[in-house]
Amino acid sequence: MAESQFQSIERVAIEYLSSLGAAKRASDEASILKFVRWFGRQRSIDAIKTRDIDAYCQTMPPNESGALRAFLSYTYKKGLSSRGLASRVKSKKEPKEPARVLGQIDEIQVTEEGLNALKSELEELKAERMMVTEQMRKAAADKDFRENAPLQAAREQKSHIEGRILELESTIVRATTVNGRGRHSAACLGDTVHLKDLATGGTLCYKLVDSREASPARGKLSSSSPIGRAIMGKHIGQEVEFSAPAGTFKYLVEQIDASNGRKYRDDSAG
Question: How buried is 184 (Cβ within 10 angstroms: 0-12 exposed, 13-18 middle, 19+ buried)?
């Protein structure tokens, strides 16, 4: 491909995210940027092969498949990638869970900040639902339902809002915060981890959060992502390593800011 035609996956991902509505962008951003990081930010978009998608899907959480599939469909429609990549996006099947006792509720661990954000989003959506319901009422006043585009659009919007409200309510009911527990120096959910890149000497700082809160662009890393899983449970002074098509990345855990406010550092460093 000529240099003038070169399109890095990072650039295409940013253009794609910019084309989305606010709600869709907020829900898909973390998943897409995580794939970009795994593949290699500056690699050409047309270098993605089906084997890359198959490999990535082995570790991808089921709830991220839709976002990645939509992104790959976009790249194909733009003539930037090979045909059939989106159809290769399949979540790794989870093993069957044992039967649960009736009424048993699985807990979800989130940070205090994340729980507050979920509650705020829920309140905003409930208010938006009321406005959309009013829009539907006004649109329904037009008796020609065959070509009533505003009514159809309002119905679709309300359906999306209702689905998200149910998801948020379910999450909030099951949520428990990790803040304030007795802690040691091992990295776990809610902690902010400072890493040193052993190849470049640069530093990175990530807060380990649940996948529902993840936003790599804002420094919030899903604990279920490849690098997130590598960091979880590590202590000060230990090395973290994970592989991606862009190469093998090695980091040193230099500091852990625990969610209860305590800070752990590598006193032997320097």
Answer: exposed
